[in-house]
Amino acid sequence: xxxTTQLAYGYQGQAAIRFPDLDLAQAGVLLLxxxxxxxxxxxxxxxxxxxxxxxxxxxxxxxxLGLLQxxxxxxxxxxxxxxxxxxxxxxxxxxxxxxxxLAQWAAGAAADGEAVRxxxxxxxxxxxxxxxxxxxxxxxxxRVALARAVLLxxxxxxxxxxxxxxxxxxxxxxxxxxxxxxxxxxxxLVIATHDARVAQALPAAQLCRIGVQSIEPAGVGx
Amino acid sequence: MNVLSLALRxxxxxxxxxxxxxxxxxxxxxxxxxxLLVSTQIDRAFERDLAGIDVVVGAKGSPMQLILAGVFHxxxxxxxxxxxxxxxxxxxxxxxxxxxxxLGDTFRGFRIVGTTPAYATHYAATLASGALWSQPxxxxxxxxxxxxxxxxVGASFIGSHGLGGxxxxxxxxxxxxxxxxxxxxxxxxxxxxxxxxxxxxxxEKSTALDAEDQKIMEAEREVTLALIRYKSPLAAVTFPRLxxxxxxxxxxxxxxxxxxxxxxxxxxxxVLRGFAAVLLxxxxxxxxxxxxxxxxxxxxxxxxxxxxxxxxxxxAGLVLCEALLLAVVATALGLAAGHxxxxxVGSWLQSERSLPLTGWIWLSAEWWVLALGxxxxxxxxxxxxxxxxxxxxxTLLNSR
Lengths: 222, 400
What we know:
The complex is a heterodimer of chains A (222) and B (400). Chain A is of the alpha/beta class. Chain A has a domain at 2-89 and 155-221: 3-Layer(aba) Sandwich (Rossmann fold), CATH 3.40.50. Chain A has eight helices and eleven strands. Chain B has 14 helices and 13 strands. In chain B, helix 2 packs antiparallel against helix 10. Chain B is elongated. The chains are: A alpha/beta (222), B alpha+beta (400).
């Protein structure tokens, strides 16, 4: 679940961004929409505990983020948040399997080869485990990044523009996989996007328009 | 996966940069190891061979040459001195012990030294086999001389005239080996010892024109030099002056001459040391630039690690670990290269019958090479690691 009340964040020398209040149930889907520079990335950074809110409160996966700081915040993020960035940032020095093991290492979790195998299998990546990122297609690489994001069974998955550079077919497949994975893990899914295809593919998603102060069902917004 | 294997994989992923840094660091550390091994062993050899010798008396000439020839046996002597004069010196109340040394012949490059058993006793030499000589034309081989030439108890050999090993052979006067010395790690290892009388006998018989001539020679017998130990250190003030002003001989203090020699050689050592320092500095800068670039290139990857839950210290630790891994491998390579080079130079010096030098030793000072390698690498990694520590993770969200 995610609940925000009067959430605001101000970059130095700029007017504070005020975000609409929202209340999203666990395993719900939220689409963050808004033009470039409206604050979608800032909202994701706040939800991941990378930025501290300048005002208001934010509850993510039952945790009031205002109460955490430092290494406790890092540990919480490792456990609760799965992040799928727009640029995937898979380490080219490591294999697909290595990139997933890296997530376990970064989170301070014990090495768990079985979990890695299970996650790769669930996302149809079992045969690609020993490939390097430069040996993958765009779609395969995105699936690896998703596998990395969900390896530790996060309560919340944050996806930043997951369809930005994909054609209609690939975008559909990516959203289907993202939705199915979140559903399988019963994780809350937040997608920051300005791609209209996303709202059409996920009609049940709650919509949060940043910069226009409104929350509405996806079918109404578009 | 752990921080070590991860750092290793990042290094292997950039083989050119890692290889260059490894080479530069290894060269710097190898040079320092080589200098350390050589200078320490030469100092030790000088110290060991000089121990208990307060002054060397020989023919007038260069005092340093006298010391190098008489104590270390790595130079030709300045000439000979009359036996009578040496016997007079032995009676001087300031002299506790006088060991005569007579040089002139070699066997396969190893010097044959005419002396008294006191010379072997002075270096606390022990016999590996056989016994010391009891009469002229008997010889005792030092450990290295015996090992190289194959001389063993019961063998006989013929010396060749001159210290260069190119003179004529004294064919009519073979030596009998009566003993072989155990290795002492001192100058005796590369000498063949015999009675002073042997040297006289060989040269008088080979050069005397007739019996009359031989009698004249016997009356004018000489030795090459004398190693002297004082009864009291106070003698150092008056004894050399006495010899230098009242006789045709010169007295040279080994400690003074060796200090002078080391000061002269020291300039070369300092140049080499400076060269090694420049190499290390270059290596440090190269590691710094490589890591700085790596952190810049991998900014987003490192931010991803933070996003995945790694604390800032963990990300900075990864960068430091990369540098430390380089340092450990470079130190191992540098130490190996330094020892190998010392062994090669040592083998060459051994074939020249010169100072003993080996790469097969470990000095406690070499731990400092390890510390130096780690220090340079850590210093070079400091700023990149701080950069990684302070990384702004939100850049991850802005990279498109």
